[in-house]
Amino acid sequence: MRLDKFLKVSRIIKRRTVAKEIADKGRISINGRVAKSSSDVAIGDTLVIVFGNKTLTVKVAALNELTKKEQAGEMYTVVDESYKESY
């Protein structure tokens, strides 16, 4: 499954166009490698996503083409969520 579609279906990022923009700016990595929006995501991959001052690390648990809002959280597990402090 494409990275931008996974981020949208899993509801980590609400819109696919936003997921594409973030990925194409080099702010997402898959297993330690910088990823583009068209990169393939597989079960067991570790994604690191940088949102401004927040860094989210998740592990892919499932790949579903469609999912309901309540089940979206089952597609990944949060490994780490950290914030940078700004002064």
TrEMBL record:
Cited SMART domains: S4
Single GO MF annotation: tRNA binding
Keyword Lipid metabolism: no
InterPro entries: RqcP, S4_RNA-bd, S4_RNA-bd_sf
Keywords of the record: Protein biosynthesis, RNA-binding, rRNA-binding, tRNA-binding
Pfam families named in the record: S4
Family matches, as PROSITE patterns: S4 (PS50889)
GO BP annotations, alphabetical order: rescue of stalled ribosome
Domain RNA-binding S4 stretches: 1-64
Family to which this protein belongs: Belongs to the RqcP family.
Known function: Key component of the ribosome quality control system (RQC), a ribosome-associated complex that mediates the extraction of incompletely synthesized nascent chains from stalled ribosomes and their subsequent degradation. RqcH recruits Ala-charged tRNA, and with RqcP directs the elongation of stalled nascent chains on 50S ribosomal subunits, leading to non-templated C-terminal alanine extensions (Ala tail). The Ala tail promotes nascent chain degradation. RqcP is associated with the translocation-like movement of the peptidyl-tRNA from the A-site into the P-site.
Quaternary structure and interacting proteins, as annotated: Associates with stalled 50S ribosomal subunits. Binds to RqcH, 23S rRNA and the P-site tRNA. Does not require RqcH for association with 50S subunits.
Name of the protein this chain belongs to: RQC P-site tRNA stabilizing factor
Gene transcribed to yield this protein: rqcP
